[in-house]
# Entry
Amino acid sequence: MFASFLVTGILVGSVEAVVSKAKSACSKAGMTTTTSANQKLKCVKVGKKLIWITIGTIPTPTASPTPTASPTPAISKISFVTPLAPAGPNPLTWQNIESRALEVSAVAWQSTQETLKANSANGVTTSIKVIYAPNTSTSHYAGFEDQLRVGIQLWNRFKLPKNSTFLVYSYDEIPWAITTIAKILTDSGLSEDQAQSMAKNLANAPYGGPECGGANSGMMIDTQGIGVFGLCARNEGTDPYYNGPLQIHEFTHQMQSAQFVGTNLNSQQVLPCWISEGLAHAAGLTAGKHSLDDYLQVRRLQASHPVLNVAGGHSSAPVDQSSMTSNFLTSYYSESSPPGCFSLPSYSLGYSAGFLTTEALAAIGGIESTLLLYSRTASGESFEEAFKNIYGITWNEASGILAKVVSKEFASYNI
# Structure
């Protein structure tokens, strides 16, 4: 039971937007190339994929122009969401959260529920679609569209995907998934070769073999988010994670990517790995369960068994809970630097330590504060700048406090 839970509970990370040769698929790590626009690209491994990333621009010699006076450019101020902070007469702060670590879970859950209520009247512009493979029953992942709408409601003050499509299929139906995804991408304007390559990678992502499946999701192009759900019958019917939290988790991966649409960046270049799965899990669990008892149950199941990735991320090795000390967690945060952290075994600690870290941030600043890190870094701020602007404390100072909070939760078996 323990092994099967780890295999199916650990999901593949998000897929970033691909809108040009930069960020598109490549074949061998370390290769470099130059585009017609003189951009220098390098092939790197991000998660399980090889993609091109921009590493510089080759200057083009030009004649020196005659200097002329230029008008002072107008400075446009970017407007960011103001997160709904947790309510209550005695809030958690950076000064008291360590001593009140065992209150974090209830405060974070309540904060998300209040955010859902506050956002309920806001307009929604995302078109959602769930497609089941021909031989896959729609009884799998019951209430799929309703759960996605909860995710949209949670995040609807941020930049939303224009279209959000999810496919559900068995291992034997991977060819159907490839064909379906490729058609969506070609209909959206990608070339057949690029669409086929991306579709093949995404369709195979949930499966390490025929015995079980996971899920994967992200923005494939500017206007189209796609998620894939494999079937895992031995857990789907009994694990509360599969009814609500998982759907919102995967939609949140699309939201992480969507904040970078229209920019030259992607989240896996600028944000640490602990928040990639940590935020998706925090959103999925706090929004996917509508009573505190149900939340604490699924939280315990998901976070109480920290693991490391092995065998390409489809298998996991357990980490002794007693080893999750503040020193260990501080090292984990340091190791989570992008983009290399996405291929490290410690990436899967995002589902436990990263989740509890993000939950603590939500308990202080509200769940929306965590996605605001994506909006602000997409605008050009560094992670450290964005963190200080949102939480009023440097990441260097906060990480030490968060490490102590999360280690207390592991030690107390509060999870």
Q: What stands out?
A: The chain has one domain: 2-22+88-412.
